[in-house]
Give the backbone structure.
Amino acid sequence: MAIDILSWILIVIGGVFSIISAVGILRLPDIYTRMHAAGMGDTLALGALCVGMMLQAGWTIVTIKLALILLFMFFASPTTTHALARAAIAGGVEPILDEDRREDRRLGDRSNRRENSDNKESENRRNKRGIDRRHNPGESS
């Protein structure tokens, strides 16, 4: 009786976290916060649901299968979220922020390096042609 109550509490908690995660995916503003909602919420929901179903199933082969699913998802979900975040960073997707609180710009390192090298190359080409960026020909010195 107590195991049934505990299992249904866990199943309801898993369902609630699953719904919260789905709402977070729909309502949050950018890909990074959406990935956080999906990764954290779904992993917690799956954990509660699987443990609740394990308690319902008792010591059977179903419990072993649920444990293996849970183990696989605990490794796959963070790995997938990390891969998506890296792909977004590589694609140049910037997070939506009110202010940037990072001291170092690690998220934009690759794109900043690429932009800086492009800027240096174009500046070198201009300097070879005798064009100085600091002097605007329309202004008098």
